[in-house]
Amino acid sequence: MNFADITLEEKQVALADLRNIKEQFASRGWFPGTSGNLSVRVGDFSPDNFHFAVTSSGRDKSVHTPEDFLFVNASGEACESTKLKPSAETLIHAKIYRMTGCGAIFHVHTVFNSLLSERYGDTGFVPAQGIELIKGLGIWEENAAIQIPVLPNYADISAIAKLIPSSLQSDIPGILLRNHGIYAWGKNVFEAKRHLEAFEFIFEVEYRRLALG
């Protein structure tokens, strides 16, 4: 599908969804500084030809402006003439879309996900077991045990993107960057939000378990 074939309504819905999610997450303090990024896929999908709306670089996500988002293609390049730059981590979003076919990806920096990703960085995953909110990831096994992947936080974003295919787990809709933050995704905005909230609850429980010894 060409970007020109995506309807105005589809674009408007994607932007409205991103504004709504941005406002909710900002109210929780999940975008300290100008950190974090959000994206929503628009139009039809194929692994080599898709488009998504993504947060523009360096914006204060606690306020709304007409320059908060732009549309990019599967290579992370702007689809329209604009002075805006996509988030520096757009290549990571593009790789996750390509590998999973998901519909939305949300990335936030929180104290708990940063601390745990550093704590388990050498292990390569954050372990969690027996937490009720694991069900929020679609895993209903009793006393389920999961491993949330942790990737190195290289300055070269393309180097991180190359690691994503080998790190993905089909039943875990998220990955952590070490001492950086979580990327969570889903088939749509609602599911991606649910997954992110579940991950953040899991991280806080696991951190407090460690603190309690």
Automatic annotation (TrEMBL):
GO terms under biological process: L-methionine salvage from methylthioadenosine
Q: Which protein is depicted?
A: Methylthioribulose-1-phosphate dehydratase
A GO MF annotation of the entry reads: methylthioribulose 1-phosphate dehydratase activity
Keywords of this entry: Amino-acid biosynthesis, Lyase, Metal-binding, Methionine biosynthesis, Zinc
Q: Which organism is it from?
A: Paenibacillus anaericanus
EC primary class: lyase
* NCBIfam families referenced in this protein's UniProt entry, alphabetically: salvage_mtnB
PANTHER family (alphabetical): METHYLTHIORIBULOSE-1-PHOSPHATE DEHYDRATASE (PTHR10640)
Source species taxonomy = Bacteria, Bacillati, Bacillota, Bacilli, Bacillales
Q: Which gene encodes it?
A: mtnB
* Functional description taken from the UniProt entry: Catalyzes the dehydration of methylthioribulose-1-phosphate (MTRu-1-P) into 2,3-diketo-5-methylthiopentyl-1-phosphate (DK-MTP-1-P).
